[in-house]
Amino acid sequence: MRARFTRASNPLEDYRLSLITQVTRLRKNREGIVPSTDREIAERCRLENRADPAKVPEDLRALVPLAQRWGLGDDVARDYFLRRATREDKAQLRAAMKAHADRIRAWLDSLGPEGIVTPEAGCFLYLLEACAEFGLTIGKTRR
Fold it and tell me: Cα 60–63–68 angle (5° rounding)?
């Protein structure tokens, strides 16, 4: 018993945790509750990531599919896809963003703080964030 307490373990707490685990397992089986996987959560975020091309400047409309793919506002979902990106994905993103990063920044700056809450601006803002998380150096850096 003494050895058990020296490992910072409490028998009553162990029993309580065991009961909670068992009840949760039984509820999942009985009620059909299946916890979502990281992939399912990330895919759901990607499906909800919509931008209306009509609300994006004409010279950036070609980037809307790219923004919907990588510009996820949920950090966990974005990280999930970034970890699984291939070299080809990175090369495609780098090539597309090389010429447009400064234009995206200028457009987002022109919106002001109130305009960033639109889905379109959010997609492009998080697209720039994804590029930074990829480690891609594109366009001029902000200071």
Answer: 125
- If you count DSSP H runs as helices and E runs as strands, how many of each does the chain have, helices first? 8, 0
Helix (H) or strand (E) holding 27: helix 11-31
A 10 A CB-CB count for 83 gives: 9
* pTM more than 0.70: no
Q: How confident is the model at residue 51 (pLDDT cuts 50, 70, 90)?
A: confident
Please say whether the beta carbons of 69 and 42 come within 8 A: no
- CA–CA dist 139, 83 (Å, integer): 23
Could you give the dihedral angle defined by the CA atoms of residues 123, 79, 77 and 87, in that order, rounded to the nearest 10 degrees? 70
* Residue in this structure with the two tokens 């697209």, named with its chain if needed: 127
Domain boundaries, given as residue ranges, for the chain: 2-31, 38-134
**Alpha helices (runs of H) in 32-141, residue ranges in sequence order:** 38-48, 64-70, 75-83, 87-98, 101-115, 119-134
| Nearest CA among 132, 110, 20 for reference residue 60 | 110
